Amino acid sequence: MKRRVRRAGRRLYERLLEREVEGVPTHIAVIQDGNRRYAKGRDSGTRAGYKAGARTTESMLSWCSELGIEEVTLYAFSTENFDRPPEQQEQLFDLIEQKLYEFADDEEVHDEQVHIRAIGQLDLLPERVIEAIDYAESRTEQYDEQYLNVALAYGGRAELLDAAREVCEEVEAGTQDPEAVDIDCIEDRLTERPARDVDLIIRTGGDERTSNFLPWHANGNEAAVFFCAPYWPEFSRVDLLRAIRTYQSRQASWRRTRTDRALALLQAVGADRAVVSRLTEKVGEIPEADLDDIEPTAD
């Protein structure tokens, strides 16, 4: 009885969250943490935890598709994961290989026109995983409706370091003008970069850190970050909706900040109320009390 009541309460809460969702992020990046701890808490082997996490990944992608999220990047295997025991690495590689083939042949992937691609230092991976990557990418390369990026052998600092080294080598060779090095110059040298900046990072498992994940695309965009306690296999649609609510709150905060800065500038130059009215249409509502604080333009 209690279990049914809890399920009903959770379904009600999910519906309430759905009503609060007015705009979704374009690009979500996910740190899927807690698979091994989930398995340990159930006296299961590590492989069972990874498989449970893989099922959550499939559900997560379906939820994102339903909500209209256009790009998802999954942190599947970091460069730090190479420090794990060989048997754990092999278990992860087995699962990654299997899921890449499954996703590449999945009817829903093709119906939704999802473009699958891997990012990271892929040459460090076993040949069998590289072959699975090539298969998934070739099967979906013609699509551009949605993107699924799988970060494998990925480290954000290494990615930036490689880009910096390439620029330095070109400057030394005389093929790159140092004065011409700009944001686009760096982005062009990042490994198979995601199509869009990251709007929201989600991390499960309780740790509150982003673990060197997409520093250029997320931190540079000042992405919203949502940390939650459930291990990745326990992550639910409710958790995703709560994360999106965090993103929306972040967006609202930025709008208020932009409005406050605009008001301060108008006060400094002595703008009249007509100018403020036009600004209101661009950046959102400005309280009437704030309008009264603005002095008329002195002629």
Automatic annotation (TrEMBL):
InterPro entries: UPP_synth-like, UPP_synth-like_CS, UPP_synth-like_sf. The active site is at D33, N81 (proton acceptor). Substrate binds at G34, N35, R36, R37, S78, T79, E80, F82, R84, R203, R209, T210, S211. The keyword Magnesium applies. Gene3D superfamilies: Decaprenyl diphosphate synthase-like. It catalyses: geranylgeranyl diphosphate + 7 isopentenyl diphosphate = tri-trans,hepta-cis-undecaprenyl diphosphate + 7 diphosphate. Coiled coil: none annotated. Pfam families: Prenyltransf (PF01255). Its cofactor is Mg(2+). GO terms for molecular function: magnesium ion binding; prenyltransferase activity. Transmembrane segments: none annotated. Mg(2+) binds at D33, E222. Homodimer. This is Tritrans,polycis-undecaprenyl-diphosphate synthase (geranylgeranyl-diphosphate specific). The lineage of its organism: Archaea, Methanobacteriati, Methanobacteriota, Stenosarchaea group, Halobacteria.
